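User: Sequence recovery, please. Input:
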């Protein structure tokens, strides 16, 4: 299988779940992501928000995307 990924810096401002869904919609199967949002954009923390982390993992699994 060929792996094609998208770096989070190319889509600044997208929330983690939106990012995963966009990547899957584009036909890519992996991401590189940060643990928190960039200054000036919607804040999030994958490190501190356990519910967001679980939801992101489930979305990645459902959409066939990995880190």
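Assistant: Recovered sequence (67 residues):
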């Amino acid at each position: 299988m060929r792996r094609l990924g998208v770096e989070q810096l190319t889509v600044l401002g997208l929330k983690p779940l939106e990012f995963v869904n966009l990547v899957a919609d584009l036909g890519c199967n992996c991401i590189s992501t940060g643990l928190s949002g960039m200054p000036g954009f919607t804040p999030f923390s994958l490190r501190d928000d356990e519910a967001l982390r679980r939801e992101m993992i489930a979305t990645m699994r459902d959409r066939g995307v990995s880190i």
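DSSP finds two helices and two strands in the chain.
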